[in-house]
Amino acid sequence: MDGAVVDGDRVYVSGTTGFDYATMTISDDVVEQAVQCLRTIEAALAEAGCTFADVVRVRYLLPEREDFEPCWPVLRKAFADAHLPG
User: Fold this and answer.
1) Are the C-beta atoms of residues 18 and 36 closer than 8 Å to each other?
2) pLDDT tens digit string along 21-33?
3) β-strands 5-7, 10-12 pairing
């Protein structure tokens, strides 16, 4: 399972995919993959004592550019309370 690396007051989570470790499967649907990816990240952040509200930087990598738009509502909801720099 993906995890978080804690370095001082920073937590790094990377390389997370939409793979569901509970069922050992990955959905063909990109939105379901995004939801599962966020579940995995949320669990890793929780292990480090953090939540999505603590996130200050996110990088999305999608094989197809057009996959971002259907995933955006899921991402926006997850990071709605994230801190903005400044």
Assistant:
1) yes
2) 999 999 999 999 9
3) antiparallel
Q: Which residues contact 31 (CB under 8 A, 6 or more apart)?
A: 70, 71, 74
pLDDT digits (tens, 9 = 90+) for 49-71: 999 999 988 998 998 999 999 99
CA distance 78 to 86: 21
CA 55 to chain centroid, in Å, comes to: 10
Model confidence, pTM: 0.87
Instruction: Name the 3-class secondary structure at 23.
Output: coil
Beta bridge partners of 11: 6
Tokens of 56: 């200050």
